[in-house]
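Hi! If you just cloned this repository, the fastest way to understand the data is to look at a raw example. We've pasted two of them here, unedited. The first protein comes first, obviously.
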Amino acid sequence: MDRISGLSDELLVKILSFVPTEVAVSTSILSKRWKFVWMWVRKLEFVMNHFGPDIALQDFINKNLPLLRAPVIEKFRLQCFYKSFRPEDINKWVGITVSRCIRELDINYFSFCHKEELAMLLPSSLYTCKSLVTLKLNGHRLLVDVPRTVSLPSLKTLLLHEVTYSTEDSLRLLLSYCPLLEGLVIGRDSDDHIRGIIIISPSLQRLTLPIDGGASYSNEYVIVTPSLKYIKVENYAAEGFSYLVAHMPKVEEADIIAQNQHHLEKLFESITSVKRLSLNVWVNEEEEYMYHDGIYFSQLEYLKLCISFDYWLKLLFRLLQDSPKLRVLKLYVSCDDSRKYEAVSWNNDQSSVPECLLENLESFEFAGYRGRPEERDFVSFIFKNACRLKSSSITAPLYPDEETCSSTET
């Protein structure tokens, strides 16, 4: 202990920031010098893993949080259940951190019921916090009630997971006053009180968004993000809603789960500059329809395609034709043996071979290979025409105790 006490206060505070907050506070009884050291800690974390009230911890936070002397709180994280603390206490704690120039606020407020308690309001001062860089709110009992005076000039990362919005316009209003926003993650709840998702952000660079259909979800999606570099979309919606995605000229990576091909086409139109594409397609509705002519992935170098529908080879061959710079192809097929046989004619005439095979493809992986006729034809076509192929791997479906059926290095 003598050696530790010989360290500077600045270093002691840094050490205490790596231990649980309750432990940091308990060091105040070690000696007269240690009595106030913890008050300068800039990272506070309170994590509850049990359901039910915790009066002792509630009293602990109420007593010690106002005593902090650090001019800036780097991070305040609270993970609890809705019965753990009184909503008015959580509201007060967030207000204290905002007054101390909080930089990262992370609230996880879990509940197993939707209706038995009212949603919890956070202080209005949160929405005008000039120092806030990262805001993470998780839980449908958290009410996002955005005032007209909202201003978050430093906010760069925003996560809103299954929260409840006070009005239809709350999300759009919040985003419109985050001029430096770079990362946005939205998770939906079926009863979050908004019917339209409108994301208009000139600065946004990373976006994760589910697109759901049905009476309980949104019937309008508008995405205007000209600076976007990464997008992840989980599209489970059917037809019957408005869908506008403006062109994203700077997108380099996209991760898409698509159940509806019409919506997939809309996304393709917006991400033609993509270099890395992970695509999970569940079903096709029309045998011949993939996406319209004119969509061309001139920069695509990496393609991971996970497919579970009958006519997957038509989509794959179309993507190969439209991606002349493709270097890496990873294919995952989960069609069962009861599916239809896809009669595809693989023409080995050099004029019909995709340019990427002749010039650029270096790595090829095929997982879920069952040796069906169309699969054998496709693999043969790849090996015959991929002139620059350096590595390849073909594996059977991943059932228990089943190993790779073949693996080659070329």
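Ok, and the second one:
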Amino acid sequence: MENKEYSEALNLLSGLIKEVRRLDDKLLLVDIDLLESKLHFSLRNLPKAKASLTAARTAANAIYVPPAQQGNIDLQSGILHAEEKDYKTAYSYFFEAFEAFNALENPRAVFSLKYMLLCKIMVSQADDVAGIISSKAGLQYLGPELDAMKAVADAHAKRSLKLFEIALCDFKAQLGEDPIIHRHLSSLYDTLLEQNLCRLIEPFLRVEIAHIAELIELPVDHVEKKLSQMILDKKFAGTLDQGAGCLVIFDDPKADAIYPATLETITNIGKVVDSLYVRSAKIMA
């Protein structure tokens, strides 16, 4: 797994699970199911990752599980919930994991705290981040990991893409090399970029792409690519005039009320015809 040979790791685990089930070693089974969940998650197979985690929880409920292992289960639960964009539930699991690791002075506590802060940022509660970091528990873990999340929270609170990019550059090891943080921050960056672009183009009917790029302080080709993607995703109505290097924005097309009304009339006529057919069938009978 550490070598990222996930398929090979799963093949090894499948044989191991059968042997351990014969031994009926529940604690070892919890370890294996949890590891299997992490492997499926790494392969982006969320349904199987959830199934393995459920199996780990079921096995854990039948025995006493050491606090560190319970913390690992909660941490994995939080990661899977965050992947499904259920950040509030994920936060509660990360909090449980943090409390378990913090009591044991386990180094994984800082990662649980980092993911807690991530959840706050993702639900647009970036203002809470400073409060959590300055709390009694948070102060124990001050360092580059928490500084990185604070920088992201500040950028999000100010809706500043430039500050966001500076944070990603300054804390590359803490943000870019953690696959879970990186995936969610990429999604957050895209959302922030779209919101900023929509706000900037709102007053215009026709505007140079270079002018938008200058306002948002990003490269022209990057802005052009994002605008074309937003047009295809129907985030706004418009077209790119690449010859002139301009964005042309159309007024939102107004839906014609006659079509829904016509469909409703035809539906009602159909119901009348059906009822008349049933009535005539009874008379003929």
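That's it. A detail worth noticing about the second one: Residues 254-284 form one domain.
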